[in-house]
């Protein structure tokens, strides 16, 4: 067993670009679900419009990266408005149904063969990230080499940009949630009618929350697309959203850094278990009847699921949550 | 307990000469409702032809369970939409106006089933009530400098109210950790943070212990002295008689009687409405004496009889007997 390779991929996962993209998705979802109580099951769609916003603008229409970024952000705002206007006046569960359906519609839309000219259908789009890597100040350097973990110059650039976005998002969320504006959101999560009776326009606040969380999600989409230098429709499926929910709950809902730490732990566990299992099965550590190489890939989800169940039993408030808050639900 | 009772005498005087009949016009109405109808399927929950609430008075809205009091509150405050009807508040039509705008217009309500915001601290529940907060707009929220000063003022006012409502010791606790009665107090105090012209309280005393009830009554009276109009729903007739200047009686959706407390409580139609809806309920207290334990659920109607009896005897309400409170209906 090659333990040093297992440790190095795991350590890289702690700060890797996937962790960043999921952290941004989860920060946005935390605004929706953790702070406002909005059940958004279509967070993947916000990342999708961000990613495709860049990809289509640059790859299909040969426009600049910055226009792509602007279009991606605008698309996230419009998506939030489209989802919110019909549903935010209704009971909470309607938003859940509409968002999960909308996310699927959008994914199928990217896949549609009739739109191949623009979206690349199921193949997705490539070659839109050149502008981004042209800006790389580390270009041509050797990247960094910390012994166990190494990053190339390209990776280093996306990490710097990605973590900057994560920290900025956290700062914005922190400022907002410690303000009277954030107090209104948290109050809406507890009881909308009470907030209405105090003269606050609940619909408008929910909409602002949906837009904010969606835009932060779109930033995650940028990171995801630029890191891979490709977009593919099926990346932005429901699985993405459920991972993001897992991360929010793991880190502790309604905590500023919860989603960030949640994403780190989630990915480090997933990668560690995955690489350990595949090393083990490559080296025939387990007998064939116990686990084949191809089964190892599924077993990691079983183990991660088990870990999450244990977490929810012994620490229902997540890593950062306040136990007292969770206990209030029982009353 | 009331140092200054000027507002009370003004209200009493203004209402003294009015005929005691449903829909009677008031000298200076703050709220006027016309033909407000709300149906739930075949059931007509509210059908109020005409009703006015005198500015600066404490008006009680009473009636048996299911009479439509809460539904009427919901309609007036924009939490429910009527099938027909219109109403004005301060001369401005509020029919069809969204709940938050009603509150901003100066009419703030509390709920029969308390709505404490459990995972917010008590003090944050209070702060939320303040209107016109600069920090409640998105962009300014990002710049603490723009709202810190106002937040401090809001906090000072909140602490002041919490002290008055004896909740100051709980200010940093989660509202969800309060007892049922404390939540009622918090909700009322929070409504006052809005600085409304009119407060509508749906059973503010339900579940509050008798000792605290007295001080709550004092608070409600103080609201009138502070220039507010109070409309409240209450089943405890001793309390209603003690603090209200005017009583509106609802039965089966409509206003069946109106008048000053003494007259309404002697009105046979009122006694009928209560008894009619509660024939099974044994009379529990007559002149303050317990006669029959009866069905505890029905005490809302029964206390009325007790109160009426007492009235006819000595015309003075007795202080609430602690036992009465145990019988009182919990919010359904
Ligand atoms: N959402 C609803 N759907 C159907 N019926 C309703 C609804 N809300 C109220 N009702 C009915 O309308 C009638 C009036 O109810 P309401 O809650 O206004 O009574 P209330 O006078 O406040 O009674 P209580 O003193 O018990 O609080 C009742 O018969 C009730 O069953
Ligand atoms: Mg009621």
Automatic annotation (TrEMBL), chain A:
<keyword id="KW-1003">Cell membrane</keyword>
<dbReference type="InterPro" id="IPR001851">
    <property type="entry name" value="ABC_transp_permease"/>
</dbReference>
<feature type="transmembrane region" description="Helical">
    <location>
        <begin position="298"/>
        <end position="314"/>
    </location>
</feature>
<dbReference type="GO" id="GO:0015658">
    <property type="term" value="F:branched-chain amino acid transmembrane transporter activity"/>
</dbReference>
<feature type="transmembrane region" description="Helical">
    <location>
        <begin position="92"/>
        <end position="110"/>
    </location>
</feature>
<feature type="transmembrane region" description="Helical">
    <location>
        <begin position="6"/>
        <end position="31"/>
    </location>
</feature>
<feature type="transmembrane region" description="Helical">
    <location>
        <begin position="210"/>
        <end position="230"/>
    </location>
</feature>
<keyword id="KW-0812">Transmembrane</keyword>
<dbReference type="InterPro" id="IPR043428">
    <property type="entry name" value="LivM-like"/>
</dbReference>
<keyword id="KW-0472">Membrane</keyword>
<feature type="transmembrane region" description="Helical">
    <location>
        <begin position="38"/>
        <end position="59"/>
    </location>
</feature>
<dbReference type="Pfam" id="PF02653">
    <property type="entry name" value="BPD_transp_2"/>
</dbReference>
<feature type="transmembrane region" description="Helical">
    <location>
        <begin position="65"/>
        <end position="85"/>
    </location>
</feature>
<dbReference type="GO" id="GO:0005886">
    <property type="term" value="C:plasma membrane"/>
</dbReference>
<keyword id="KW-1133">Transmembrane helix</keyword>
<protein>
    <submittedName>
        <fullName>Branched-chain amino acid ABC transporter permease</fullName>
    </submittedName>
</protein>
<feature type="transmembrane region" description="Helical">
    <location>
        <begin position="156"/>
        <end position="177"/>
    </location>
</feature>
Automatic annotation (TrEMBL), chain B:
<feature type="region of interest" description="Disordered">
    <location>
        <begin position="308"/>
        <end position="332"/>
    </location>
</feature>
<dbReference type="InterPro" id="IPR003439">
    <property type="entry name" value="ABC_transporter-like_ATP-bd"/>
</dbReference>
<protein>
    <recommendedName>
        <fullName>ABC transporter domain-containing protein</fullName>
    </recommendedName>
</protein>
<dbReference type="Pfam" id="PF12399">
    <property type="entry name" value="BCA_ABC_TP_C"/>
</dbReference>
<keyword id="KW-0067">ATP-binding</keyword>
<dbReference type="InterPro" id="IPR032823">
    <property type="entry name" value="BCA_ABC_TP_C"/>
</dbReference>
<dbReference type="InterPro" id="IPR051120">
    <property type="entry name" value="ABC_AA/LPS_Transport"/>
</dbReference>
<dbReference type="InterPro" id="IPR003593">
    <property type="entry name" value="AAA+_ATPase"/>
</dbReference>
<dbReference type="GO" id="GO:0016887">
    <property type="term" value="F:ATP hydrolysis activity"/>
</dbReference>
<keyword id="KW-0813">Transport</keyword>
<dbReference type="InterPro" id="IPR017871">
    <property type="entry name" value="ABC_transporter-like_CS"/>
</dbReference>
<feature type="domain" description="ABC transporter">
    <location>
        <begin position="31"/>
        <end position="277"/>
    </location>
</feature>
<dbReference type="GO" id="GO:0005886">
    <property type="term" value="C:plasma membrane"/>
</dbReference>
<dbReference type="GO" id="GO:0005524">
    <property type="term" value="F:ATP binding"/>
</dbReference>
<dbReference type="Pfam" id="PF00005">
    <property type="entry name" value="ABC_tran"/>
</dbReference>
<dbReference type="InterPro" id="IPR027417">
    <property type="entry name" value="P-loop_NTPase"/>
</dbReference>
<keyword id="KW-0547">Nucleotide-binding</keyword>
């Amino acid at each position: 067993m090659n333990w040093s390779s297992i440790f190095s991929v795991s350590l890289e996962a702690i700060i890797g670009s996937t962790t960043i993209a999921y952290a941004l998705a989860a920060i946005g979802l935390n605004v929706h679900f953790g702070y406002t109580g909005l059940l958004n099951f279509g967070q993947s769609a916000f990342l999708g419009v961000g990613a495709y916003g860049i990809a289509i603008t640059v790859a299909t229409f040969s426009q600049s990266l910055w226009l792509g970024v602007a279009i991606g952000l605008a698309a996230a705002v419009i998506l939030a408005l489209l989802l919110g206007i019909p549903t935010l006046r209704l009971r909470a569960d309607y938003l859940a149904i509409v968002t999960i359906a909308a996310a699927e519609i959008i994914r199928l839309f990217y896949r549609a063969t009739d739109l191949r000219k623009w979206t690349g259908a199921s193949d997705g789009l490539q070659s839109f990230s050149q502008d981004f890597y042209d800006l790389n100040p580390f270009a041509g350097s050797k990247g960094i080499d910390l012994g166990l973990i190494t990053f190339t110059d390209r990776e280093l650039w996306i990490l710097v940009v990605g973590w900057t976005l994560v920290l900025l998002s956290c700062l914005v969320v922190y400022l907002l949630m410690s303000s009277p504006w954030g107090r209104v959101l948290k109050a809406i999560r507890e009881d909308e009618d009470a907030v209405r009776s105090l003269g606050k326009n609940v619909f408008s606040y929910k909409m602002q929350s949906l837009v904010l969380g969606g835009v932060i999600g779109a930033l995650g989409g940028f990171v995801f697309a630029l890191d891979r230098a490709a977009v593919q429709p099926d990346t932005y499926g429901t699985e993405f959203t459920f991972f993001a929910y897992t991360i929010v709950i793991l880190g502790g809902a309604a905590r500023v850094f919860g989603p960030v730490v949640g994403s780190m732990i989630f990915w480090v566990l997933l990668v560690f278990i995955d690489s350990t299992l595949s090393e083990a099965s490559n080296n025939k550590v387990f007998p064939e009847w116990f686990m084949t190489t191809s089964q190892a890939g599924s077993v990691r989800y079983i183990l991660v699921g088990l870990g999450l169940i244990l977490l929810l039993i012994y620490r229902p408030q997540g890593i950062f949550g306040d136990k007292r808050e969770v206990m209030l639900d029982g009353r | 307990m009331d140092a200054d009772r000027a507002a009370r005498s003004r209200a009493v005087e203004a209402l003294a000469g009015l005929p005691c009949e449903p829909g009677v016009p008031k000298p200076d109405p703050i709220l006027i409702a016309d033909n407000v109808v709300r149906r739930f399927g075949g059931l007509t929950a509210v059908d109020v032809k005409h009703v006015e609430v005198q500015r600066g008075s404490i008006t009680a809205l009473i009636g048996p369970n299911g009479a439509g009091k809460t539904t009427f509150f919901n309609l007036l405050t924009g939490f429910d939409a009527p099938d027909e009807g219109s109403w004005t508040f301060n001369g401005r039509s509020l029919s069809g106006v969204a709940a938050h705008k009603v509150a901003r217009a100066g009419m703030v309500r509390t709920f029969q089933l308390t709505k404490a915001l459990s995972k917010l601290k008590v003090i944050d529940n209070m702060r939320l009530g303040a209107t016109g907060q600069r920090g409640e707009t998105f962009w300014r929220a990002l710049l603490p400098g723009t709202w810190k000063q106002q937040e401090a003022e809001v906090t000072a006012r909140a602490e002041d109210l919490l002290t008055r409502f004896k909740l100051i010791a709980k200010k940093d606790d989660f509202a969800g950790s309060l007892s049922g009665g404390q939540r009622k107090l918090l909700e009322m105090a929070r409504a006052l943070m809005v600085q409304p012209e009119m407060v509508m309280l749906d059973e503010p005393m339900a579940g509050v212990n008798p000792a605290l009830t007295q001080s709550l009554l004092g608070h409600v009276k103080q609201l009138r002295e502070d220039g507010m109009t109070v409309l409240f729903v209450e089943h405890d007739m001793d309390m209603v008689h003690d603090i209200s200047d005017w009583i509106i009686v609802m039965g089966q959706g409509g206003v069946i009687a109106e008048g000053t407390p003494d007259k309404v409580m002697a009105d046979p139609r009122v006694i009928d409405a209560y008894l009619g809806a509660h024939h099974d309920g044994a009379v529990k207290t007559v002149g303050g004496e317990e006669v029959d334990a009866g069905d505890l659920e029905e005490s809302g109607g029964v206390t009325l009889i007790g109160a009426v009896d007492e009235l006819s005897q000595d015309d003075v309400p007795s202080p609430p007997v602690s036992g009465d409170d145990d019988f009182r209906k919990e919010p359904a």
